[in-house]
Specification:
The chain is built from twelve helices and seven strands. Strand 1 (about 40-45), helix 4 and strand 2 form a beta-alpha-beta unit. Helices cover about 40% and strands about 25% of the residues. The protein has a single domain, classed as Rossmann fold. It has a seven-stranded mixed β-sheet with strand order 3-2-1-4-5-7-6, with helices on both faces. GO terms for molecular function: methyltransferase activity.
Amino acid sequence: MKKTDYSAIADRYDHNQFRVDEIQHDKDLKNYLNNYHQQEYQVLDLSCGTGNYLVKQHHFLKDLPIKWFGLDASEEMLRIAKEKNGHVTFDHANAEKMPYHSEMFDFIINNYAFHHYLDKNQVIDEVYRIMKKEAVFKMHNIAIHQMPKWWVYHYFPSAYTEDAQRFLEKDMIYHELKTRGFEVKMHIHYRMEEIKVVDYLKLAENRDISVLTLISDQDYQEGLEKMKFDLNKNRGKTIINDFAEMFCLAGKY
């Protein structure tokens, strides 16, 4: 399995406006805070990237007694995250070996990151270790096995081959969490729609989507040229695109 070098794309990572626009107020976190009243909460954004989630949630929940933490394996991504989040304690470390004592966190969020881990089982073990009793681990990611018509795979077919080596099937994720004692609830949000290719050209050109950094330069250039060719023939070119997101809540009870 190849690994994305985020130090090479950190400075252009936030140029992808979808990364900012798609972040919503975390209702699962808010529900947890409403149901478990205590003097202070410890919340960890695991693989926090450039800190966009933390910015959004801190503003949303600024009146609540939360100590925010962010961990990432990329120093360059953390550098950007720190510039946005003066209220967060950041740590540079791998998810397989986190610098936190056992039973430390009330809520751990993992957005679009689980596929990056080389030892996924070890990460789950670490997450379980650092969670308090009655804490919740939320995993949010794309579900590639349910979205074969994604525009990325349409124009860059080798991207699916790379992703198939990185992403676990939803059943396997459920099984690995369940066997460790988590109480698991998972759902997949799926949509299929017609999209305008022109709306996605800049995303492809920015090449910040991790799998586009893993395919060969030749495969990337061929896909980009195919997009441009289609648009030169028909500026209004559309394709059928599907997209699936997995939301998984794992409670330690």
